[in-house]
Amino acid sequence: MHEEWLESRMVHCPYCDAPFDLLVDLSGGDQQTWEDCPHCCAPIQVRIAVSSVDGDLEELTLGRDDEVL
């Protein structure tokens, strides 16, 4: 993994609304994964959309585990 593919984003937990820094790996293209909130430990769905043209982050969506993203 190359550092130029990693991007840090400030996000808010959809459960407790606490802000935290999320490290996004753009090297895998579009992806859906799970992260635990570092404050309340709730499971957060993370959906990442990456541009196929330039590899930039197009969309970052966070949701609760019972939401459909």
Automatic annotation (TrEMBL):
Record protein name field: Cysteine-rich CPXCG
| Alphabetical list of Pfam families matching this protein | Zn_ribbon_21
